[in-house]
Write a structure and sequence with these properties.
The chain contains eight helices and eleven strands. The longest helix has 15 residues. 26% of the residues lie in helices and 22% in strands. The chain folds into two domains: 55 residues, no CATH class; 168 residues, Rossmann fold, CATH 3.40.50. The protein has 261 residues and is an alpha/beta fold. The chain is globular. Bound molecules: S-adenosylmethionine. The site of S-adenosylmethionine (SAM) has 22 residues, from helix 3, strand 6, helix 6 and helix 7.
Length: 261
């Protein structure tokens, strides 16, 4: 496996012998991974993960999902989240972001679920993501969000997405945001947690743990205007080795708040 391309041997773009092949080839070139065709013998014997367009969405598949389905950036609110815009700023996440916060940078956007929650609560939001695969899935999700009837009716634009390492990107922000939000991958407590969502387990299998969380935390403390919020499992030590100013607890997780002096 090439150190330059963490996806080589793990991921391919899959063309299911239907529609224009050009965007599939373009995505494969962009990610520097092979393009496989589902009509070829043994097409599924080389890589563990596939990207393809199904049902009008860009989807990530593992071997289990090859026959049916796929994981995509879900633009519908999660259970318990409000549909309206702006949704009320309540719950542990909103408390951690802070009452006076107006602008947020999500430096670890991943599947975009926290970002979309933050966006729906009406904060000004910028999304950062370093994995080119996740960035491609997010770009597709944000494009679908822009087409939603309620977005168009309210003349809203989806949050902006920058693909790249937040440790570098945060240093280039034209203005410090009120809050920088971090949700890096922590090692699981048990090898395979029955409680972990499949989409998160796949993310871990594909990308591994985020070993440079402390450097990201330091970059966020440097770049923020007022605070950094870190989402972590309830068993994890606070990032950066310091003591958070405040912590808000959710189900099996915690939002640690670090205020800038
Ligand atoms: C646990 S996931 C985030 C899940 C996300 N909060 C959600 O609601 O879907 C962590 C993501 O952060 C990204 N990430 C980790 N460190 C990063 C960095 N330094 N810069 C940009 N993205 C980073 C990883 O690639 C991964 O996609």
């Amino acid at each position: 496996m090439s150190p330059q391309n963490p996806y080589l041997g793990k991921l391919a773009v899959l063309y299911e012998d239907y529609g224009d092949i050009a965007p599939f080839q373009q995505l494969a070139d962009q990610l520097a991974v092979p393009l496989r065709n589902s009509v070829e013998a043994n097409f599924d014997q080389h890589e563990a993960f596939f990207l393809c367009w199904r049902d009008g969405c860009l989807k990530l598949l593992d071997k289990e999902l090859l026959k049916k389905g796929g994981m995509m950036v879900e633009i519908e609110p999660r259970e318990g989240e409000q549909r309206s815009w702006p949704a009320p700023k309540d719950g542990a996440l909103a408390k951690a972001l802070g009452r006076k916060t107006k602008t947020v940078v999500d430096a670890t956007t991943g599947w975009g679920q926290d970002s979309l929650h933050i966006f729906r609560m009406g904060y000004g939001l910028l999304c950062l993501e370093r994995s080119p695969v996740m960035a491609a899935l997010l770009a597709d999700g944000l494009q679908r969000l822009a087409q939603e009837e309620w977005m168009q009716r309210l003349q809203l634009h989806p949050p902006r997405l920058l693909a790249g390492n937040a440790i570098d990107l945060l240093a280039t922000l034209p203005e410090p945001p009120d809050c920088i939000y971090l949700d890096p991958m922590f090692p699981p407590k048990r090898k395979k947690s029955a409680l972990a969502k499949k989409s998160m387990m796949v993310l871990r299998d594909l990308l591994g743990d985020d070993e440079d969380k402390d450097a990201l935390f330091a970059a966020a403390m440097q770049a923020t205007g007022k605070r950094v919020v870190v989402k972590c499992p309830d068993y994890a030590q606070p990032l950066g080795g310091g003591k958070p100013s405040d912590s808000f607890h959710g189900k099996l997780l915690r939002y640690d708040v670090f205020l800038k002096n």
